[in-house]
Design brief:
Layout (H helix, E strand, L loop, with lengths): L2 H29 L6 H8 L3 H5 L5 H22 L6 H18 L4 H12 L3 H27 L10 H18 L7 H16 L2
Length: 203
């Protein structure tokens, strides 16, 4: 096989995998994790179930790939954010991306984890996600430390710090996606919430 054909095959493989993940994301948007099956993904992607199995073991494997991809994207996004405007501005800048993650996979991640961990807690998908979660939270901590330092502040260190910030970001995402605060201006709501989180974790 020459170089051109090799590139073509690789491109086709990546395109099919991308198509499968996009189809799965569309199904999650409409029906949640319960609606995600190999058959439904195959139908949405315009592929045969057999072809799906060439790329993913089962629906849990597909969801794990989506969550892993989303975490990597968020980690890279946070790494590129400026920190010189302070911690409140940093948190506000993170919100759109964490909202995107929550809307795509975050709101059903607990269902996936319950199912996957119960049957295969040492599976490769779970191991990969543990590493990507650690990397995501490590990048978040570094960004918060840098932004706080730019203001001459320090973080209130403790094991609850990152879970607290993450819970705040996920709560914001839930509110924004579901429009729970429809009478509020989204930008003002994000700014207010970011200010509150920033004050809660610094001294």
């Amino acid at each position: 096989m020459n170089a051109t054909n090799t590139t073509s095959v690789r491109g086709d493989t990546e395109a099919r995998r991308r198509g499968i993940l996009d189809a799965a994301a569309a199904i999650l948007d409409v029906g949640g994790y319960a609606a995600l099956t190999i058959r439904s993904v195959a139908k949405e992607a315009g592929m045969s179930p057999g072809l799906i199995y060439q790329y993913f073991v089962d629906k849990r494997d597909i969801f794990a790939a989506l969550l892993f991809e989303s975490q990597q994207e968020l980690t890279a996004f946070i790494a590129e954010l400026p920190r010189d405007q302070g911690i409140s501005a940093l948190i506000a800048a993170i919100v759109p991306e964490t909202t995107k993650q929550w809307a795509r996979v975050g709101h059903v991640a607990s269902v996936w984890r319950t199912t996957e961990d119960a049957s295969n807690s040492d599976g490769q998908a779970v191991q990969d996600l543990r590493h990507s979660t650690e990397a995501q939270f490590a990048e978040l901590r570094t960004a918060l430390e840098d932004a706080a330092g730019a203001q001459g502040l320090s973080l209130r260190e403790g094991p609850s710090l990152i879970p607290f910030v993450w819970a705040g970001l996920m709560g914001l995402a839930d509110t924004i996606v579901n429009n729970w605060a429809q009478d509020l201006d989204p930008t003002e709501y994000i700014t207010y919430s970011a200010d509150g989180l920033a004050r809660a974790i610094t001294h």
